[in-house]
Amino acid sequence: MTVTDVRTPRDAPTRIVAVPRTPLSRLRWAVTDTWVVAQRDLVHWVRSPAQVFSGLLFPGMMVLLFGYVFGSAMTVENGGDYREFLMPGLFALVIIMGVGETVTAVADDAGAGVTDRFRSIPMSRVGVVAGRCLADMMNSVMGLCVLVLCGLVVGWRAGGSLLESLAAVALLLLLRISIVWIGIYLGLLVKTPEAAAAVWTPLFPIAMISNAFVSPEQMPGWLRVVAELNPMSATVTATRELFDNPGTGGTSWLSENALLMAVVWPALVTAIFFPLAVHRYRKMSR
């Protein structure tokens, strides 16, 4: 590796950390470290089968709870089966709730000194946070697959074409990527598992004040506005449309342009929180 400049950590002024010189070598460095960190996080999950099992069990419990317990008393505006209406909302719910796991995992690493260890060795600053993102995305794909299987068992079907169904899954994963960056930033910000637990508190209100479980048209006027502005609602409406499930109606501009907003909202969130997460990692006190 060709090296022409150095970094000197503040807590160890005699330590010299080599930095690749060319943009291509920096990119290769970042990609390599991203995969190393992702592998490390995945190994931790493999060694914690109870945690993995409980995480995969959660989607099935959501289908049972909302599809059968609450769903027996729910109706779909303009008609349709409620479980067909519900499943895209549950897909997005599991995506949103994953931010709590990300915050907790990042805060655990910070509290245990793992993050400081990463900072003290020649690792790409982008690669460390990107590795966590990659590992979380792999975990999310597993959870989403389990939830899709649960939906098929209870009678949910994707009525759209294969290409439309793949596009719907892509939109869900796009939302997940943006949520991961929020979780990484908050985990680096709080730095302790105890503080990370507080992040779970606002997750349910954010998830519930959306179109995941009921149409915003059935909500009070002010609450309908909040639900329609929720980025989760755009993804839910777009995936319902692509899956050809009931509940894609709506007269607002946001509802009529859900496919566009399902891309714009995650892109905007990522554009804000990705640089914030990298900046926070670089500026953390050691």
From TrEMBL:
Chief location of this protein within or outside the cell: membrane
Regions that span the bilayer: 50-70, 90-112, 133-154, 166-188, 195-214, 258-278
Keyword Membrane assigned: yes
Source organism superkingdom: Bacteria
Subcellular location: Cell membrane; Membrane
Keywords, in A-Z order: Antibiotic resistance, Cell membrane, Membrane, Transmembrane, Transmembrane helix, Transport
Pfam families associated with the record: ABC2_membrane
Membrane topology: Multi-pass membrane protein
ABC transmembrane type-2 domain segment(s): 50-284
InterPro entries to which the protein is assigned, alphabetical: ABC2_TM, ABC2_TM_bact-type, ABC_2_transport, Nod_factor_ABC_transporter
Family of this protein: Belongs to the ABC-2 integral membrane protein family.
Protein name: Transport permease protein
